[in-house]
Amino acid sequence: MGESAQRQSSGLGSVWKHLSWALLTVQCTSFVLLLHYSRIMSPAGGKRYLTSTTVFFNEVVKLAISLTMALYEVSKTAPPSVPATSLFFSLTTAIFSGDSWKLAIPACLYTLANSLQYIALSNLPPATFQASYQLKLIVVAIASLVLLKRPVSLRKLGLMVLLLAGVALVQMPTGNPDDMTLQDETARLAFPRSLEEWKASKLGRESLHKRSATYEGIEEDMMTANPRLNATVGLLATVGACLASGVASVYFEKVLKDSAKSTSLWIRNVQLSVYSIFPALFIGVVFLDGEKVAANGFFEGYNWIVWSTVVVQAIGGIATSFYIGYAFRDGKNMAMAASIVLTTVASVWLFEFELTANYLLGSFAVLVVTCLCEDANSASAQAKRQTFRPPPIRVDRYEKESKSGDASPASPSPNEISIKLPGLHLRATYALAAPQAVDISKSTHETTELQFADIIFASFA
């Protein structure tokens, strides 16, 4: 019965693990597609939204979700009579105590990576970005070697070289850069951004009015309406996002391992969000885009697609921290490999992405590296678990009583730990507990496991 329950629990854990991989695949794919479409669609009200505001709202959404779940965890361990103010005080103490200040570094790096992802997907197709973003595997390997002293095998070095070659093939241009636009008039889908836009689309083009071609700011408006593809900027932004995100994830893992006390991952997510809000607000919104926000408003160009992108990105950030905390890197690599395939198929269908020989060869190399890195991580983790598995503990059965009155246990195996329980006064204790039940002087038979258990329970009676 115990074995069946164990098999059932292990099977349930496997189901949840595969479900988490599937959800991560959907999240990565939908985030890339939504973000890219939000950057190439016709801007709402003639103005495109500011990426600094979306990065800030991403941290706000993550903070709201993580703070709610952290408060729920604190309330579960508190008595029912504890007031809400005490719960908030306990939560605040847990957030800003200990080594929480160490998370300021990965928080700033994650904020930088999020900002660079918007720049990259504004200049690259989703399929190209998704394949190029796997350069993060190289950054994680190097950062793990430096920060975690995790060795890099020759096999992994060869995979890194293959990954670089694959990304180079993916990034190889296929046409004249001056003729490449991010918005294709032959795209299959163009979703309405609001109910008013859907109603206005029925009126036809006659309802549109023409503007003069000589007004001030026409070049900026033309770039907003028809953004140009800049592969160089997109590649540099992708590499920067890989560097920032890779170092941040390894540093976050180091903080979790070096922490003196165990802290809930929801508390860790709150700490990351708190430290991320400050650079996102003061550097991104106020310093870089302060004039535009003051002139056009904070929610300039927002619609349901932009809000969906923010929410999906926030969920992905929380999920990534849990994958790092619970060491599910092998499953994350498989999810990213599946996301590359899904993103490529969706890009061909939604954005008329052209599949070239260079892209097919490069993406195939990236997929091979991602899957082989997953196998290597799983094998090393399994070997590590087997290496540090403690030896079995066995309690030897006592043989017949010797003439000296001491029990002589059988010699244990050299690979097993033998624990000899004290035999002194056990019989006397049992006799004092139940003198009418046992005649100690006539006891010459072998002590069985059941009698041994009775002796233990009687000694504590």
TrEMBL record:
UniProt xrefs under Gene3D superfamilies: 1.10.3730.20
UniProt cross-references to PANTHER family, sorted A to Z: NUCLEOTIDE-SUGAR TRANSMEMBRANE TRANSPORTER
A molecular function (GO) term: pyrimidine nucleotide-sugar transmembrane transporter activity
Main location as per UniProt: endoplasmic reticulum
Superkingdom field: Eukaryota
Region (Disordered) residue spans: 394-415
Pfam families per the UniProt record, alphabetical: Nuc_sug_transp
Keyword Membrane in record: yes
Cellular component terms (Gene Ontology): Golgi membrane
Transmembrane segments: 19-37, 49-72, 127-148, 157-174, 231-252, 272-290, 302-326
Biased composition (Basic and acidic residues): 394-404
Membrane topology category: Multi-pass membrane protein
Alphabetical keyword list: Endoplasmic reticulum, Membrane, Transmembrane, Transmembrane helix
Subcellular location(s) per record: Endoplasmic reticulum membrane
Protein name: Acid Phosphatase family protein
Leader peptide range in chain numbering: none
